[in-house]
Amino acid sequence: QIVHLADYRPTDFVLERVDLTFELDPTNTKVDARLIFHRREGVDLSAPLVLDGDELALSGLLFDQKDVPASQYDATPESLIIRDLPAEAPFEITITTHINPEANTQLMGLYRTNGIYCTQCEAEGFRRITYFPDRPDVLAPYTITIIGDKAANPVMLSNGNFLGGAGYDEGRAFAAWFDPHPKPSYLFALVAGDLAVVEDTFVTMSEREVTLKIYVEHGNESRTAYAMDALKRSMKWDEERFGREYDLDIFMIVAVSDFNMGAMENKGLNVFNDKYVLADPETATDQDYANIEAIIAHEYFHNWTGNRITCRDWFQLCLKEGLTVYRDHEFSADQRSRPVKRIAEVRHLRSDQFPEDGGPLAHPVRPTTYREINNFYTTTVYQKGSEVTGMIATLLGMDDFKAGMDLYFERHDGQAVTVEDYVKCFEDVSGRDLAQFSLWYSQAGTPLVNVSTEYDQTSATFKLSLEQMVPATPGQPDKQPMHIPLSFALILDNGAIADATSVKGGEVTGDVLHLTDRRQTFTFTGIASRPVLSLNRSFSAPVNIAFTQTPADLAHIARHDTDLFSRWQALTDLAIPNLTKAARDAREGHEVTCDPALIAALLEAAGDDTLEPAFRAQVLALPSEADIGRELGGNNDPEAIHTGRNAVLKLIADAGEDLFKRLFSDMKADSAYSPDAESAGKRALKAAALTYLAYAENSPQRAAEAFGAADNMTELSQALTLLAHRFPEASETTGALASFLTRFDANPLVIDKWFSLQATMPGEDALARVKALIDHPRYNAGNPNRVRALVGMYAFSNPTGFNRRDGEGYRFLAGQILEIDPKNPQLAARILTSMRSWRSLEPTRADQARDALMTIERSPSLSTDVRDIVERMLKG
Ligand code: ARG
Ligand code: ZN
After folding, report:
1. Residue (of 320, 275, 270) closest to 299 by Cα position
2. Which residue ranges does UniProt annotate as crossing the membrane (predicted)?
């Protein structure tokens, strides 16, 4: 069952209203769905009503409250088809199903987590609750009645506004909810159980008071403060920046401990993986706080980009996800440091999206075909989708971008729309033709831009020649040239930026070059001395740039560019050839060396007290082993990359030891822990200094002391990670790991960290360690966070430990996938994507990886999720 974008057509019947009644029972919940439909104008009288199901059994069917004769319908677990329905008049269908939340280990539809009833319906989970036109272009208002055991379910929630509740019958109670905003089924939610609540309020821009509630397990109330604050800041920001006001009397967030993804934007009732809600200094890291802020914002922003305006079909997923990621990025950039945020985004894009785009799972931001939609909640749809919206803002300028967004909200409120509808709004406000630009939605692969420059002193002319190439990807052998907006600066000898008003060869708006042809030369005149080109500033386009600049030019950019992102990029570009050469040298058993110019530039930036500490920490975090592997581009030996990189780190550490000692003491906090970005930046720089000092001193002493002295989880887990990764054999490490476990035994989110940091310990012993941890009493194969912390982190984030030459890592993963798949196919498929770059390994490892993938493929009982991923990985 492959779905094609080209096959889209509207439903034959229009859904007018939905009225659901749930009688909750852990193993036998009764669902009555009363649906009012009418036949769409012009639809053939013979057309039946076709409803989706998934593992359902029909236990009752009424038409206008009367029994339907068996001859008039067909029910299977996957569908309910009803014939002989009225020509025009609205009619009512009442469907009864019984479902078993306790047995629902897929965590799609209605399930139980720690005694709490909870739902996840995106993308196609609603059809596991009742038969329904389960697609995003079917919108209706919902009335929900929940009936449940009173003692077990003091809290019973659904979307919209609360209508009322009371005792129902012996020992039971009911609660009723009404959501007036027409919505598709994927935004439905129900939560019931015994939860604690923390309340607050927000007054909107039109002075309406909204009740805010965060529901958590009892005992966790005090850990919701940061999430609540982030929610209020998100609501305010969306009003100020996008003019978007909240539209119900109440906004609720529920934190649950078993969840397949990060969170879900159900209308008025967001459901979160608890790791993105709960935080206090003792148990959450700075990164956790930043994630909570970003995800709370993301789900809240969906209320307009996703809920009020939704997707016509699932091919349009980037319409809500890419745009909402763009919005949450902007929010975090405004709340924190914009350049530091941008550096983090680009690191993430390069480490996750670029490999996807360059491997067998590559697909366009808007795919045209899928077998399993759950496999398309990808970094391409989310992160590259966000970059595409960012490029629209760059191309149009902020004023037209804002006008385009306003038009989008005005024109399409209440509709289920397409990427074309979205782009049209920007064309209409700007008068710009975005046809070529739209190739970003349809062409997969990361474009490569080759750059060469030429300066002529006598004519004071600078020539910039660009050539773009979009690589072939599965199903797309030939590509058209794209519209690539490249922000640039010409930096003069004295560090000033040249005024580039006289440019020929293509469109230039502000500091943006528009590369639209395959080859294009821009000629700048009136440039009195040879400039240094800084290109793709702020990462204005998600492309690879091939441009060989001298270390001196890169150091010049690193020192003078007014765009901090570009300064970081220049230092990265300076580091890359050193790291790739180190990997090659290590592989051949040669001594690893490092260009003193790199060391000098890094230490200069790291020691520059006029720069914010968070930025300097980013500078000191060299490209990762995965980054280096990508730069090498194939025939990769993760062991050599690791050895080479560590040797470079050691050279930097030795050269900068004095500086690192100074930073380690300068960055000490002078007050109690606060999660704000500035304090977090200081901690990050301090941690970087500590890491280099561990290399320089080659002793666990300092890290062990830092572990003992830490009064917050950020520093505690950093010290423990450093101990475990750098000094696995030391008694300090063994002791620290044991004491950490004892101290945080009652806190699952912290125990996840304990599993993760061990899963990512490099080297040969990693697999034995991971296998032992699978048998640890705290391991829980049914909890997605725990599985991701151990198996996921091992496969995604332990290059040497996982990519063993003997292939045991791959065979272990294959075994895990086959174990997880029958219970939770989404989780299994997601973890399996860790092998998406298997073809870039050296031949021995690549063969082992292929064999492991083929073992999975041969399994007779794979889920569609895993089958889709494994087949694409072997084919592409
Ligand atoms: N819409 C959610 C978010 O990005 C993600 C839900 C993903 N669900 C899934 N079954 N793949 O906020
Ligand atoms: Zn989202």
Report:
1. 270
2. none
